[in-house]
Amino acid sequence: MSKETIRVPDIGSSDPVDVIEVSVKKGDSVEAEDTIVVLESDKASLEVPCPKAGKVLELKVKTGDQVKEGDPLLDLDVAGEDGGDDSGDEAGDDESKGEASDEEASDKEAPDQQDDADDADQQDDESAAKPAAGGTRTVAAPDLGDIDAAEIIEINVAEGDSVEAEQTILVIESDKASLEVPSPEAGTVKKLLVKVGDKIGTGTDLMELETAGGGDASAQSASDKGASEKESGEKGGSEKAARSRKSDLDEKPSEAGRQSAAPETPERSQGKPSASVHAGPAVRKLARETGIDLADVPPSGPKDRILKEDVHALIKRRLENPPAAGGAGAPDLPEIDFSEFGPVERQELNKLRKVAAKNLHRSWITIPHVTQFDEADITELEAFRKSQNKALEKEGVKLTMLAFLVKACANALREFPRFNSSLELGGEALIMKDYVHIGIAVDTPNGLVVPVIRDADKKGLKDIALEMGELAGKARDRKLSPADMKGATFSISSLGGIGGTAFTPIVNWPEVAILGVSRSDTKPVWDGQTFQPRLTLPLSLSYDHRVIDGADAARFTSYLSQLLSDMRRALL
């Protein structure tokens, strides 16, 4: 075992770069080629792999530091190697000194050769700085280093577009990295030679670019490309290769991940322009899978870098504020001519049903619904209700099972106040309400309306029954005011007078729960010795799973069932 210091490799530039992520910590065991840090410059991000397997002894950098080539990153306890802690570094230093001595000797022995090389470099720089001749040239893929084939995942220009020098024209992705390919010079895109999904390598023709001036420069471009490839082969540390090394981004998307990515839109496949953004391959992959245009994502990372958290934040905002039509991510539905199959008649929806449909749709797509089913034994309660109705008949009061449900739910909401809350729009907090207003769904010829019984927890059964009768009458006569239907904290939808065994009611936003009640039925219930006929009432509690857990829902319905089985519990 020996200690070895892992340093910043050749990153193609002498300028300091930022450490944006440290992927290991002290004491971690790493394998060869495991990512240890992620570096970022103005143009690209680079994953730095560990050259050997071992155990991290000490970290030399932290997130936010700036480093350059040769700076120490960490001390590694290398497995299977012996020797002093600093032997590797000393050897490296000796080797460097030896190389420096050789270079000095070489410089002294051949000054003329050095001058010739300097002159050649100066000529190359002048040639690169000099603008290409006007006309049409073919733009080829730059040197991709050790990448044999990369997939085009995004095209940022379209035929006819004007581009500036160094403007991103497309983005390619391999198993290890993503790379933005810039335009070598300004001009107009005459023809695209590739499309999204194509596999390309070094030198693949990408597009025909029309530059200022006349004459066809395709041949010149081809010769330039050949010379460039030759120069790249002779000079392993060329500027293009350096840019390729710097393009390794902050996550390695898998082949399976790319295959599962959402298909590109037709516009993007045809090369529709999109804003140039600063994002790594993991973020781009997430955006493709979720259908998010990165141009719409506000960046929060360093140097306007888009992070995964930024994409998630945009998705969250869109879910909380869905578009008026079509829903969040809902596909467009095709128009169908039903008259092709037989006679039809079109009936316009009234305003009430249109408003209800919009509200229900909003609730369904924004609230994660779960429904808890239960039943209550109301045998004694039903006998009590019938006996009291005879006594209250002279007062004009008719007790219905719904009145008992309102009173029982009011007590349950006080016992479980989370069901009487609303979720803040940002999803950061609950609004706990110190009042209990219960909405009662009323079926009318014009549609469903939900008048509200206010302060139900403070009213007796007679008061609740009288108020329910008044509100139901106003609903049938279409005399409910907007104030009669606002402010509910919980709703009850009863189908007991119609039928059914159970159903899943939709939570009425901004409430977090709704109780559905179906028709009561007599069932044989085992009392320990024999079966007894018992009248049971089916309960269906739908709730917002962001606010309420399943265990809480089960406790709520259990408590409600106990109250309905013996209303004397409500007095406790």
Structure notes:
The chain is an alpha+beta fold and 572 residues long. It folds into three domains: 2-96, RNA polymerase II/Efflux pump adaptor protein, barrel-sandwich hybrid domain (OB fold (Dihydrolipoamide Acetyltransferase, E2P), Beta Barrel); 136-276, OB fold (Dihydrolipoamide Acetyltransferase, E2P), CATH 2.40.50.100; 351-571, Chloramphenicol Acetyltransferase, CATH 3.30.559. It has 13 helices and 29 strands. The strands form eight sheets. Strands 19, 22, 25, 26, 27, 28 and 29 form a seven-stranded mixed β-sheet that branches. The protein has a four-stranded antiparallel β-sheet with strand order 1-8-6-3. A four-stranded antiparallel β-sheet has the order 5-4-2-7, with no helix packed on it. The model is unreliable at 83-114, 120-132 and 214-275 (pLDDT under 50).
Topology:
Elements: E1 2-7, E2 17-22, E3 29-30, E4 35-40, E5 45-49, E6 54-59, E7 66-67, E8 72-78, H1 87-109, H2 111-129, E9 135-140, E10 150-155, E11 162-163, E12 168-173, E13 178-182, E14 187-192, E15 199-200, E16 205-211, H3 218-234, H4 239-246, H5 255-259, H6 266-269, E17 278-279, H7 281-290, E18 305-306, H8 308-320, H9 351-366, E19 369-377, H10 379-392, H11 401-415, E20 421-423, E21 430-432, E22 438-440, E23 442-444, E24 447-449, E25 452-453, H12 461-476, E26 490-494, E27 513-517, E28 521-526, E29 531-544, H13 550-565
Parallel strand pairs: 17-18, 22-26, 26-27
Antiparallel strand pairs: 1-8, 2-4, 2-7, 3-6, 4-5, 6-8, 9-16, 10-12, 10-15, 11-14, 12-13, 14-16, 19-29, 20-21, 22-25, 23-24, 27-29, 28-29
Helix pairs in contact: 11-12, 11-13
